[in-house]
Amino acid sequence: MLYLKKRLRDKLAKRAVEKIYLIIFFFTFLSCISLAKSLKAITCTHVKHNLIPPQKDSLQYILHIILPDTVPSELKKIQEDNQIFTSREKLNTALNIQIESFRKQGFVLANIDSISEKSEPKQSGINKEKWIKVNAYFFPGKMYCWGKFRIIKDSALRVNSFLKKFEKLEGKFVEFSRLNKLEHQLLNSAENQGYPFAQINSDSIRVAGKSISMEIKFSSGRRITFDSLDVQGPSKTKKKFWIKKLGIFPDKVYQEKKIRDIPLIVKKLSFIKLHRKPEVSFYQDRAIIHLRVEDVPSNFFDGIIGFAPSNELEKRIQLTGEVTLGLRNMGGTGKSIDAEWRKTNRYSQELLLGYKHPQFLTPRLEVDIDFSIHKYDTLYNDILRKLTFVQQTGLNTNIRIFGEFFGSRIISTNGLDKNFLPAYTDFDRDAYGIGAEWNNTNDVFYPRKGIFSLLTASAGKKKLVQNTFFNPEVYTEIPATTTTYNYQYKGALFFSPSYNITIKNQLVAGKISADKFFYNDLYRFGGFKTLRGFEEKKFAAEQFFIYTLEVQYYLEENSYLFLFGESGNYKGLTLAGNPVSDTPVGMGAGLSFKTPAGVFSFIYAFGKDKEQPLSLDFSKIHFGFISRF
């Protein structure tokens, strides 16, 4: 393209020079006398790349751009304002930008004809500042537009849509950057249709008045197909997994995009990394993809211990905790299992189990199976079974369809009145929903830039189950079956204003819509993962949101200090069945650092709501340890 620009400009310049030679010759004699007188005060310099020779000084420069009268009035606005620069380098940059601006508007031969400088001392307070007035005389030349494009191609490649884009340029200002962009798009399309050796040549340039026409020759080259995938390195991951994950199947049409996407795909896998960039070798009409990979420790054991007051009256410390076990890439097939146990207070416990099966039936379909049991104090048990189908739609996106089956049962009726229902009751709820996820964060474990967003919505039926302990009359005013709607969102934005600092913005929200709510219907949040500074699962809400701002200062790659603040708002029920709403706030600090044995974390947090004052007496301390193997 640079060659094309040079040829075109040479041709246009030749015609322009022929026309102005006579004018220059006629005015040369008259101008010699005036130039001799003005050379003492004014220095003229013809400009190419370095418009004004750089000098080491501390002068101020006032730039004034002068245009010929033939330039359209709308382009003369740049003459109105004088620009001030503190160095010659900045002045040169501004002049070059202005030249490119003219060329983008069809003035292909735009340049600076001459520059004059004049020193102007100026009194400013008690200091004497020296100003240099710079007059830049622009030569825009003619304004050219694109004429006809003749496209010559040698294959049946599907490029008709691009050919129409070339035709749309006809009659518009000559702008080589737009032409370059179309040519690159055409080549990229060819590369992804099996023609990685495609070429574009521009030829037969014709200039007629203010119109420029040309002939574009497109050569597709030979058609290439994938031959095989060569995976090397100390990894247990099976080759079959790689073929499906990368979409590189033997005898399929070669696609350059799939090669470029390999580093991005591998980066989202927690159990493996690339040792070097993918390489491609061609022989005859086939391509072999070479990968050098190695496993990274991805299985993990995570233990968290918490200390918190048992209640306001006893002032005793109770032990809470959480243990998580994750197994990744089992058998080299990408499958994973998660197990998590939590003890949120003296009587409450929770067990969660999960299984992920990638490449189920198709390479981009994943099946997730989740099962959980939650024992809330001595009041009731919750059991959740969930099946999710996750379809990957792009490098950073997926959609999911799921069904969840939830049941809640009262543990003990001791102390309850058989003639009155408590705020919690027995019921079953089946729901089906859909969700969408976007995730372009740069790291699986320690994201420092990017966006994560997950939105889900579901609808289902809730069926009341009558407990034989209570009199049947207590259920007469409660509908046996109701329709429920559930909306949830979780999103996070990471960005790094400097090398060591990362700022995390996170929003978590949820809403349940139903005719009748019970206490064990609602979302439970609060604690280490949702609202730090409070007891685990303290709040029960039909709708809520939690915003988190966290500033992380990295000491090294996997070790950082952080400060955080969290604010939430919710509307829900108390255990007594009374409506409640509040705006809890949490804040604190912590650290996370990597050791040879694993990653250790320490968090000190305290929070405030209607029941809990902002006091060190109610602070929470969390210890965490993650061992990867």
Outline:
The chain is of the alpha+beta class and 629 residues long. Helices cover 16% and strands 48% of the residues.
| Quaternary form | single chain
The stretches of 5 or more residues where confidence is low (pLDDT under 50) are: 16-49
Estimated structural class: alpha+beta
Q: How much of the sequence is in beta strands?
A: over 45%
Number of strands: 30
Q: For the record, give the distance between the C-alpha atoms at the N and C termini, rounded to a whole number.
A: 53 Å
What number is the mean pLDDT?
Answer: 83
Biggest sheet details: 16 strands, antiparallel, barrel
> What is the overall number of helices?
6
Radius of gyration: 36 Å
Work out the helicity level.
10-25%
Global shape: globular
Spatial ordering of strands, largest sheet: 13-14-15-16-17-18-19-20-21-22-23-25-26-28-29-30
Question: Mind explaining what this structure looks like?
Answer:
With 629 residues, the chain is α+β, with helices and mostly antiparallel strands. The protein contains six helices and 30 strands. The protein has helices at 2-38, 88-104, 160-168, 176-191, 239-246, 256-267; strands at residues 43-45, 60-66, 83-85, 111-124, 127-139, 145-153, 199-208, 211-219, 225-232, 272-274, 279-283, 286-295, 300-309, 317-330, 335-343, 349-357, 365-376, 380-392, 397-410, 427-439, 450-464, 481-495, 501-513, 523-525, 539-556, 559-573, 579-582, 585-595, 598-608, 620-628. It has a 16-stranded antiparallel beta barrel. It is globular, with a radius of gyration of 36 Å. The protein starts with a helix and ends with a strand. The model is unreliable at 16-49 (pLDDT under 50).
